[in-house]
Design brief:
The protein has a six-stranded mixed sheet, covered by helices on one side. Helix 5 runs antiparallel to helix 6. The protein starts with a strand and ends with a helix. The chain is an alpha/beta fold. The model has no long low-confidence stretch (mean pLDDT about 95). It has nine helices and 14 strands. Bound molecules: zinc ion.
Length: about 260
Protein backbone atom coordinates (compact mmCIF):
# COMPACT_ATOMS: atom_id res chain seq x y z
CA UNK A 1 0.00 0.00 0.00
CA UNK A 2 1.49 3.28 -1.14
CA UNK A 3 1.28 6.52 0.85
CA UNK A 4 0.18 9.40 -1.35
CA UNK A 5 2.07 12.67 -1.59
CA UNK A 6 -0.44 15.50 -1.56
CA UNK A 7 0.18 18.98 -2.98
CA UNK A 8 -2.21 21.85 -2.41
CA UNK A 9 -2.90 24.39 -5.16
CA UNK A 10 -4.80 27.53 -4.09
CA UNK A 11 -6.96 28.86 -6.97
CA UNK A 12 -9.76 31.39 -7.52
CA UNK A 13 -10.71 33.31 -4.37
CA UNK A 14 -10.56 30.55 -1.80
CA UNK A 15 -10.59 27.13 -3.52
CA UNK A 16 -8.02 24.43 -2.93
CA UNK A 17 -7.32 21.92 -5.68
CA UNK A 18 -5.22 18.93 -4.67
CA UNK A 19 -2.67 16.86 -6.53
CA UNK A 20 -2.47 13.35 -5.07
CA UNK A 21 0.53 11.32 -6.24
CA UNK A 22 1.41 7.67 -5.77
CA UNK A 23 5.22 7.60 -5.54
CA UNK A 24 5.42 3.89 -6.39
CA UNK A 25 3.54 4.00 -9.69
CA UNK A 26 3.55 7.67 -10.65
CA UNK A 27 -0.26 7.78 -10.81
CA UNK A 28 -1.39 11.32 -10.08
CA UNK A 29 -4.90 12.60 -9.54
CA UNK A 30 -6.25 16.10 -9.53
CA UNK A 31 -8.97 16.34 -6.92
CA UNK A 32 -11.72 18.76 -8.00
CA UNK A 33 -10.03 20.84 -10.73
CA UNK A 34 -11.75 24.19 -10.51
CA UNK A 35 -9.42 25.54 -13.19
CA UNK A 36 -6.74 24.25 -15.57
CA UNK A 37 -3.53 26.26 -15.91
CA UNK A 38 -2.37 26.75 -12.31
CA UNK A 39 -3.02 23.09 -11.59
CA UNK A 40 -1.15 21.73 -14.62
CA UNK A 41 1.69 24.17 -13.95
CA UNK A 42 1.98 22.91 -10.38
CA UNK A 43 2.02 19.29 -11.59
CA UNK A 44 4.72 20.13 -14.15
CA UNK A 45 6.91 21.74 -11.51
CA UNK A 46 6.63 18.61 -9.37
CA UNK A 47 7.35 16.38 -12.36
CA UNK A 48 4.03 14.59 -11.86
CA UNK A 49 2.06 13.35 -14.89
CA UNK A 50 -1.71 13.64 -14.54
CA UNK A 51 -3.46 10.28 -14.88
CA UNK A 52 -6.77 10.90 -13.08
CA UNK A 53 -9.31 13.45 -11.96
CA UNK A 54 -11.29 12.68 -8.83
CA UNK A 55 -14.48 14.73 -8.51
CA UNK A 56 -16.42 15.01 -5.25
CA UNK A 57 -19.45 16.82 -6.70
CA UNK A 58 -20.68 18.62 -9.78
CA UNK A 59 -20.31 22.31 -8.86
CA UNK A 60 -18.37 24.35 -11.40
CA UNK A 61 -15.61 25.27 -8.99
CA UNK A 62 -14.89 21.53 -8.65
CA UNK A 63 -15.33 20.30 -12.23
CA UNK A 64 -14.59 23.41 -14.33
CA UNK A 65 -11.24 22.00 -15.51
CA UNK A 66 -12.45 18.46 -16.25
CA UNK A 67 -12.83 18.50 -20.03
CA UNK A 68 -9.81 20.61 -20.90
CA UNK A 69 -7.54 18.61 -18.61
CA UNK A 70 -8.87 15.34 -20.01
CA UNK A 71 -8.27 16.60 -23.55
CA UNK A 72 -4.71 17.65 -22.69
CA UNK A 73 -3.67 14.63 -20.62
CA UNK A 74 -5.97 11.76 -21.57
CA UNK A 75 -6.69 11.25 -17.88
CA UNK A 76 -9.50 9.12 -16.43
CA UNK A 77 -12.29 11.03 -14.69
CA UNK A 78 -13.76 9.41 -11.59
CA UNK A 79 -16.92 10.82 -10.00
CA UNK A 80 -20.18 10.15 -8.21
CA UNK A 81 -22.45 7.51 -9.72
CA UNK A 82 -25.47 9.38 -8.36
CA UNK A 83 -24.45 12.50 -10.31
CA UNK A 84 -23.12 10.90 -13.50
CA UNK A 85 -25.16 13.29 -15.66
CA UNK A 86 -23.67 16.38 -14.02
CA UNK A 87 -19.97 15.40 -14.06
CA UNK A 88 -18.35 16.53 -17.35
CA UNK A 89 -16.41 13.73 -19.03
CA UNK A 90 -16.99 11.12 -16.33
CA UNK A 91 -15.42 7.72 -17.12
CA UNK A 92 -15.71 5.80 -13.86
CA UNK A 93 -18.74 6.05 -11.58
CA UNK A 94 -18.27 5.29 -7.89
CA UNK A 95 -20.46 5.30 -4.80
CA UNK A 96 -20.82 4.19 -1.19
CA UNK A 97 -18.62 1.27 -0.26
CA UNK A 98 -16.62 1.21 -3.48
CA UNK A 99 -12.85 1.06 -3.42
CA UNK A 100 -10.96 2.99 -6.08
CA UNK A 101 -7.25 2.46 -6.58
CA UNK A 102 -5.01 5.33 -7.54
CA UNK A 103 -1.79 3.51 -8.35
CA UNK A 104 -1.04 1.50 -5.20
CA UNK A 105 -3.16 3.71 -2.94
CA UNK A 106 -6.76 2.70 -2.29
CA UNK A 107 -9.63 5.06 -1.58
CA UNK A 108 -12.82 4.04 0.09
CA UNK A 109 -15.76 6.02 -1.30
CA UNK A 110 -18.52 7.46 0.88
CA UNK A 111 -21.83 8.85 -0.32
CA UNK A 112 -22.19 12.12 1.58
CA UNK A 113 -25.34 13.90 0.34
CA UNK A 114 -26.35 17.24 1.82
CA UNK A 115 -24.43 19.99 0.05
CA UNK A 116 -25.52 18.33 -3.22
CA UNK A 117 -27.54 15.17 -3.64
CA UNK A 118 -24.70 13.23 -5.30
CA UNK A 119 -21.71 14.41 -3.25
CA UNK A 120 -19.07 11.77 -2.48
CA UNK A 121 -15.83 11.70 -0.50
CA UNK A 122 -12.61 9.72 -0.97
CA UNK A 123 -10.83 8.29 2.07
CA UNK A 124 -7.29 7.02 1.47
CA UNK A 125 -6.84 5.15 4.74
CA UNK A 126 -3.20 4.27 4.07
CA UNK A 127 -2.42 7.95 3.51
CA UNK A 128 -4.45 9.42 6.41
CA UNK A 129 -6.19 11.53 3.76
CA UNK A 130 -9.84 12.44 3.33
CA UNK A 131 -10.90 14.42 0.27
CA UNK A 132 -14.30 15.67 1.31
CA UNK A 133 -15.02 18.47 -1.17
CA UNK A 134 -17.65 20.83 0.24
CA UNK A 135 -19.11 18.49 2.86
CA UNK A 136 -16.81 19.13 5.83
CA UNK A 137 -14.76 22.31 6.24
CA UNK A 138 -12.39 23.41 8.96
CA UNK A 139 -14.86 24.43 11.72
CA UNK A 140 -17.70 24.33 9.18
CA UNK A 141 -19.73 22.27 6.75
CA UNK A 142 -21.19 22.83 3.30
CA UNK A 143 -24.42 24.69 2.74
CA UNK A 144 -27.43 22.43 2.27
CA UNK A 145 -28.25 23.25 -1.35
CA UNK A 146 -29.81 19.89 -2.24
CA UNK A 147 -30.12 17.95 0.99
CA UNK A 148 -31.73 17.92 4.41
CA UNK A 149 -30.12 18.42 7.81
CA UNK A 150 -30.76 14.73 8.58
CA UNK A 151 -28.89 13.69 5.41
CA UNK A 152 -25.95 15.95 6.27
CA UNK A 153 -25.80 14.61 9.83
CA UNK A 154 -25.62 11.06 8.45
CA UNK A 155 -22.93 12.12 5.98
CA UNK A 156 -20.81 13.88 8.59
CA UNK A 157 -21.16 10.91 10.95
CA UNK A 158 -19.16 8.85 8.44
CA UNK A 159 -16.25 11.23 8.93
CA UNK A 160 -16.56 11.38 12.73
CA UNK A 161 -15.67 7.70 13.02
CA UNK A 162 -12.50 7.92 10.89
CA UNK A 163 -9.12 7.68 12.65
CA UNK A 164 -8.44 10.97 14.47
CA UNK A 165 -5.15 11.52 12.62
CA UNK A 166 -6.97 11.57 9.25
CA UNK A 167 -6.13 14.77 7.40
CA UNK A 168 -9.14 16.69 6.14
CA UNK A 169 -8.39 18.06 2.67
CA UNK A 170 -11.44 20.25 2.20
CA UNK A 171 -11.95 22.39 -0.87
CA UNK A 172 -12.08 25.92 0.50
CA UNK A 173 -10.20 28.25 2.83
CA UNK A 174 -13.26 29.22 4.87
CA UNK A 175 -11.66 28.54 8.23
CA UNK A 176 -11.47 32.04 9.68
CA UNK A 177 -15.08 33.00 8.96
CA UNK A 178 -16.26 29.56 10.06
CA UNK A 179 -14.37 29.99 13.29
CA UNK A 180 -15.90 33.41 13.94
CA UNK A 181 -19.32 31.80 13.68
CA UNK A 182 -18.28 28.79 15.79
CA UNK A 183 -17.31 31.12 18.62
CA UNK A 184 -20.85 32.55 18.68
CA UNK A 185 -22.28 29.10 19.48
CA UNK A 186 -19.44 27.75 21.63
CA UNK A 187 -17.77 30.75 23.26
CA UNK A 188 -16.58 28.66 26.22
CA UNK A 189 -14.93 25.92 24.14
CA UNK A 190 -11.25 26.33 25.08
CA UNK A 191 -10.01 24.25 22.15
CA UNK A 192 -11.98 26.49 19.80
CA UNK A 193 -10.66 29.70 21.35
CA UNK A 194 -7.09 28.40 21.04
CA UNK A 195 -7.64 27.23 17.47
CA UNK A 196 -8.99 30.61 16.42
CA UNK A 197 -5.91 32.31 17.84
CA UNK A 198 -3.76 29.95 15.74
CA UNK A 199 -5.93 30.46 12.65
CA UNK A 200 -5.86 34.25 12.96
CA UNK A 201 -2.07 34.18 13.24
CA UNK A 202 -1.76 31.92 10.19
CA UNK A 203 -4.15 33.96 8.05
CA UNK A 204 -2.37 37.20 8.95
CA UNK A 205 0.64 35.67 7.16
CA UNK A 206 -1.53 34.20 4.38
CA UNK A 207 -0.67 30.66 5.49
CA UNK A 208 -3.28 27.97 4.62
CA UNK A 209 -5.21 26.53 7.56
CA UNK A 210 -6.11 23.43 5.53
CA UNK A 211 -5.65 20.47 5.87
CA UNK A 212 -7.10 20.02 9.28
CA UNK A 213 -7.54 16.67 11.06
CA UNK A 214 -10.57 14.74 12.24
CA UNK A 215 -9.23 15.05 15.82
CA UNK A 216 -9.26 18.84 15.79
CA UNK A 217 -12.60 19.03 13.98
CA UNK A 218 -14.21 16.81 16.62
CA UNK A 219 -13.09 19.29 19.27
CA UNK A 220 -13.88 22.56 17.49
CA UNK A 221 -16.36 22.10 14.64
CA UNK A 222 -19.92 22.95 15.79
CA UNK A 223 -21.38 20.89 12.94
CA UNK A 224 -19.86 17.74 14.48
CA UNK A 225 -20.88 18.74 17.98
CA UNK A 226 -24.69 18.98 18.11
CA UNK A 227 -24.51 16.81 21.24
CA UNK A 228 -22.38 19.39 23.07
CA UNK A 229 -24.35 20.75 26.07
CA UNK A 230 -22.74 24.18 25.65
CA UNK A 231 -23.73 24.42 21.99
CA UNK A 232 -27.25 23.16 22.69
CA UNK A 233 -27.66 25.85 25.34
CA UNK A 234 -26.29 28.57 23.06
CA UNK A 235 -28.87 27.81 20.35
CA UNK A 236 -31.67 27.63 22.92
CA UNK A 237 -32.15 23.85 22.71
CA UNK A 238 -30.70 22.24 25.86
CA UNK A 239 -31.01 18.46 25.63
CA UNK A 240 -32.26 18.88 22.07
CA UNK A 241 -32.43 16.23 19.39
CA UNK A 242 -29.12 15.93 17.48
CA UNK A 243 -30.55 16.64 14.02
CA UNK A 244 -32.68 19.53 15.29
CA UNK A 245 -29.69 21.16 17.00
CA UNK A 246 -27.59 20.66 13.87
CA UNK A 247 -30.36 22.21 11.72
CA UNK A 248 -30.62 25.24 13.99
CA UNK A 249 -26.84 25.68 14.00
CA UNK A 250 -26.74 25.45 10.17
CA UNK A 251 -29.60 27.94 9.87
CA UNK A 252 -27.77 30.40 12.14
CA UNK A 253 -24.62 30.03 10.06
CA UNK A 254 -26.63 30.74 6.89
CA UNK A 255 -27.70 34.05 8.41
CA UNK A 256 -24.30 34.86 9.96
ZN1 LIG B 1 -19.96 22.91 -3.89
Amino acid sequence: MSRLSVHQVPVLNDNYVYLAHCPETGATAIVDPAVVDPVLTAADKLGWTITHILNTHHHGDHTGGNLEIKAKTGCTIVGPKADRDRIPGIDVEVGEGDTYKLGNAAARVFDVPGHTRGHIAYWFSGSDALFCGDTLFAMGCGRLFEGTPAQMVTSLAKFKSLPPETRVFCAHEYTQSNGRFALTVEPDNKDLVQRMADVNAARAKNIPTVPSTIAIELKTNPFLRADSPGLQKAVGMPGGDYVAVFAETRARKDRF
